[in-house]
């Protein structure tokens, strides 16, 4: 074996403070404030929906990259298949909103279970390459099954069913703001759910695996089970996000399941801050808003993402969230100093 | 009927040689530097565009064959000295992210400079004809491509096997400490190898330009194929890159008329299977 | 005579023609401190890796408490009651000292550690074990610091402490004093001697004075094989050991 390949991650200075100085209550309140203010602040409710939908996908990605240390290019598989499954179930079986969303989450979770079970048989660069190969395969399969997926044209006329119980319509979701309401409620639940997962025995073990997998195995954890479960949870959340995205657009494009979608989700995760749930919201928000504002003025704005990606790895490993945290700490330090001086 | 297959196989060999040139750079960099370069496809793209510009300005393809790889190599050298060498010690995850950033920048800058629509590059005048082999006719440029790439492959092999530089690269792929002990400036060796590997991607871009033109979205596609070749051939293996490059080229070419998506599906499935069953590649050393 | 807690039969680990471990038959009696020593390259660490499950052995058998564990993976051996420390400190560097110990205690929870819904409070037992261990290791004052910020000696002690958190029946310690300063060694020696009262300990060690002072049984290895086995007294006086090992040191 090439010893270079098995060397554990060195110099990984992801924010230790995130683990020691967590203020979950404060960040949860901040999250709620953002979710409520979002449709008032951004130009349109549709854009607000898009932000929260991608923030969900980023939550899923963060569970793998931020908390388990797994760089997966497979997220597009879960996102895309969630979109397709929900859309097809609604079109062909006329299922309701919640059934469609559940099916999407189940499809994303099951596929992630499969992808995870295969990919974690290898580590390091070979793991990454496997997720990459599987995403490419999923893309070409979706392309080939054009009777189902619409191929290159995408799957058209995806409905957005109302919130209904037993055939009785409670809310119509046709207006963007009403749909935002649904997305926001789901996002808040997923965020709180993710918080619970991270604070559980399972979540604490994921951190241990990220920190030092050999040691985690040596103290008795079958690390494969943890990684596969992390994949399944991540896939379910991402599949749900994909379904909501299809409902938002009334359309499921082939690009949902393409490698660049994985890259986009990864970039949002990293720029927002790996290992921070609030960072997921920051990353998705920043990039979706930037894309919306800049793409009309300057179509090449993606260049900035490239620069930002390099900058985060080189100078600001904690991403935007890490930056905010250190800013907060510096201000707190300065405040203490003035108090002492006074 | 047989001629059709022969035609496709020859096409496949040409394509395969281009794949080889891209992948050998990638595999060389991985072998010596243990560095994963996700920007490799973008450098290929840059080679194609520089070829386009040179041909448009001077009308001389041959000049671009010399200048474009040199320019791409120079850019890589500068990048290595300023940025890449700072991340050798980081986990692969971070290397992937940084080079993904570089790839995004190169792609967007290319679109700024050359526009979002692909550019076509004319076949050099000298090679516009066809070669007749009995009943069989074949475009000259494609034959030239196979021959030229083969020459580059031989030169590269001689460089790796017969020179002090090559010996250092090979020794360094085994253990970088050995090379430092030999009193060689390991950083210079790294810079040169990185630039050489990337220049080869640029060269591949030039050679493919008259066939496929320069298109901003070729970068990611080519990167994917290069990874397939590198994985199937075994990461760090010169012979593996050649054999797997040709194999992938021929398979893609044969299937292109039947089921093009199927060929992509197949090569990525092959890549996944190889990683799962033979992670050191079909031709790599265990 | 009691039955051994750990037994190996004809244990072999081969790398091609080279036999790092060559037909070793080891018997570790419950309640003892059993040390394995030998010159560099004698195969101690390779033997250790076979016992922990880190290396798949080329031949022979490993029995734990009469049960064949030859094919059990490393994490599966922990569940049976074998815990190990690392020669090169291997901690969760960015996690707190308490969390390192708590995770080590939780490692024996098996499937229950996959519980991703209930808060950690519902697994309070592991936190209690961690707190107890912090006291015992005299690390309570540093409980909330990242493990990576401890001094080298404290990291070595935490390393051993993590192995104890699993409440194992057999503790496998790989050169616990490796790289430790002279000042810290007595603390470690005391800790291991104490451990010997509640646990069975297999110790791989370089430091002769520790081995001689606390071991019940010593196995001397040379070139992958067992050269001599016996009490510290017997080993010290054995002529073969002197030539193979002590002689070399002198």
Automatic annotation (TrEMBL), chain B:
Keywords: Amino-acid transport, Cell membrane, Membrane, Transmembrane, Transmembrane helix, Transport
InterPro entries membership: ABC_transp_permease, BCAA_transport_permease
The keyword Membrane appears for this protein: yes
Chief localisation class: membrane
UniProt cross-references to Pfam families, sorted A to Z: BPD_transp_2
Membrane topology: Multi-pass membrane protein
Transmembrane parts of this sequence: 6-28, 61-80, 92-114, 141-160, 189-211, 265-283
Keyword Transmembrane helix: yes
Subcellular location: Cell inner membrane
Family membership noted in the UniProt record: Belongs to the binding-protein-dependent transport system permease family. LivHM subfamily.
Protein name: Branched-chain amino acid ABC transporter permease
Native source species: Salinicola endophyticus
Lineage of the organism: Bacteria, Pseudomonadati, Pseudomonadota, Gammaproteobacteria, Oceanospirillales
């Amino acid at each position: 074996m090439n010893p270079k390949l098995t060397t554990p991650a060195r110099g990984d200075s992801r924010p230790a403070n995130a683990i020691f100085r967590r203020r979950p209550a404060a960040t949860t309140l901040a999250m709620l404030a953002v979710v409520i203010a979002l449709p008032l602040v951004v130009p349109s409710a549709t854009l607000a929906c898009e932000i929260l939908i991608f923030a969900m996908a980023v939550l899923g990605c963060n569970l793998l990259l931020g908390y388990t240390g797994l760089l997966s290019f497979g997220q597009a598989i879960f996102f895309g298949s969630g979109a397709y499954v929900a859309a097809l179930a609604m079109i062909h079986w006329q299922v309701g909103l919640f059934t469609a969303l559940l099916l999407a989450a189940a499809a994303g979770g099951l596929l992630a279970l499969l992808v995870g079970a295969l990919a974690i048989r290898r580590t390091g660069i070979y793991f990454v390459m496997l997720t990459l190969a599987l995403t490419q395969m999923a893309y070409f399969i979706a392309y080939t099954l054009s009777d189902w997926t619409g191929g290159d044209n995408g799957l058209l006329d995806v409905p957005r069913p109302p919130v209904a119980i037993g055939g009785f319509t409670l809310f119509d979701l046709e207006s963007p703001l009403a749909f935002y309401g649904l997305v926001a409620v789901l996002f808040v639940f997923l965020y709180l759910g993710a918080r619970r997962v991270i604070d559980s025995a399972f979540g604490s073990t994921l951190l241990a695996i990220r920190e030092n997998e050999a040691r985690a195995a040596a103290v008795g954890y079958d690390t494969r089970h943890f990684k596969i479960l992390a994949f399944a949870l991540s896939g379910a959340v991402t599949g749900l996000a994909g379904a909501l995205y299809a409902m938002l657009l009334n359309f499921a494009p082939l690009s949902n399941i393409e490698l660049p979608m994985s890259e986009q989700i990864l970039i949002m995760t990293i720029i927002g801050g790996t290992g921070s749930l609030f960072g997921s919201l920051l990353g998705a928000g920043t990039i979706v808003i930037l894309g919306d504002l800049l793409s009309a003025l300057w179509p090449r704005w993606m260049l900035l993402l490239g620069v930002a990606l390099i900058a985060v790895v080189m100078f600001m490993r904690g991403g935007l969230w890490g930056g905010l945290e250190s800013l907060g700490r510096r201000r707190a330090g300065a405040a203490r100093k003035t108090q002492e001086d006074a | 009927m047989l001629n059709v297959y022969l035609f496709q196989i020859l096409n496949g060999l040409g394509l395969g040689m281009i794949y080889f040139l891209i992948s050998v750079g990638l595999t060389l960099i991985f072998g010596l530097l243990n560095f994963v370069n996700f920007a490799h496809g973008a450098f290929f793209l840059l080679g194609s565009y520089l070829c386009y510009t040179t041909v448009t300005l001077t009308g001389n393809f041959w000049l671009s064959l010399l200048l474009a790889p040199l320019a791409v190599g120079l850019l890589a050298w500068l990048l290595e000295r300023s940025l890449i060498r700072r991340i050798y010690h980081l986990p692969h995850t971070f290397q992937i992210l940084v080079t993904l950033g570089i790839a995004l920048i190169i792609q967007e800058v290319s679109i700024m400079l050359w526009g979002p629509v692909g550019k076509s590059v004319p076949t050099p005048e000298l090679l516009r004809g066809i070669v007749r082999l009995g009943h069989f006719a074949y475009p000259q440029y494609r034959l030239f491509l196979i021959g030229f790439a083969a020459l580059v492959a031989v030169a590269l092999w001689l460089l790796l096997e017969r020179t002090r530089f090559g010996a250092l690269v090979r020794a360094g792929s085994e253990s970088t400490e050995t090379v430092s002990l030999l009193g060689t400036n390991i950083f210079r060796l790294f810079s040169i190898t990185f630039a050489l590997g990337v220049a080869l991607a640029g060269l591949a871009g030039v050679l493919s330009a008259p066939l496929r033109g320069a298109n901003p979205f070729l970068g990611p596609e080519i990167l994917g194929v290069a990874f397939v070749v590198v994985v199937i051939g075994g990461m760090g293996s010169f012979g593996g890159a050649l054999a797997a490059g040709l194999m992938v080229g021929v398979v893609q070419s044969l299937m292109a008329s039947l089921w093009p998506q199927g060929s992509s599906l197949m090569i990525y499935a092959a890549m996944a299977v190889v990683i799962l069953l033979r992670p050191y590649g079909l031709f790599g050393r265990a | 005579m009691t039955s051994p807690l750990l037994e190996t039969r004809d244990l072999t680990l081969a790398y091609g023609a080279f036999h790092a471990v060559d037909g070793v038959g080891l018997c570790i009696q419950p309640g003892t401190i059993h040390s394995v020593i030998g010159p560099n390259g004698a195969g101690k660490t390779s033997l250790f890796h076979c016992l922990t499950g880190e290396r798949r052995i080329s031949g022979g058998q490993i029995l734990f408490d009469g049960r064949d564990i030859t094919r059990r993976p490393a994490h599966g051996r922990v569940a049976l009651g074998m815990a190990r420390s690392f020669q090169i400190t291997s901690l969760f560097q960015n996690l707190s000292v308490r969390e390192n110990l708590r995770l080590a205690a939780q490692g024996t929870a098996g499937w229950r550690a996959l519980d991703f819904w209930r808060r950690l409070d519902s697994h309070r037992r592991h936190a209690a074990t961690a707190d107890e261990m912090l006291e015992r290791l005299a690390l309570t004052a540093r409980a909330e610091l990242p493990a990576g910020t401890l001094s080298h000696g404290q990291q070595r002690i935490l390393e051993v402490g993590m192995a104890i958190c699993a409440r194992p029946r057999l503790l496998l310690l790989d050169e616990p004093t490796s790289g430790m300063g002279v000042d810290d060694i007595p603390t470690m020696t005391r800790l291991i001697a104490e451990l010997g009262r509640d646990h069975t300990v297999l110790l791989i060690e370089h430091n002769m004075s520790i081995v001689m002072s606390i071991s019940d049984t010593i196995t001397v290895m040379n070139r992958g094989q067992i050269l001599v086995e016996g009490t510290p007294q017997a080993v010290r006086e054995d002529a073969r050991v002197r030539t193979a090992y002590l002689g070399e040191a002198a």
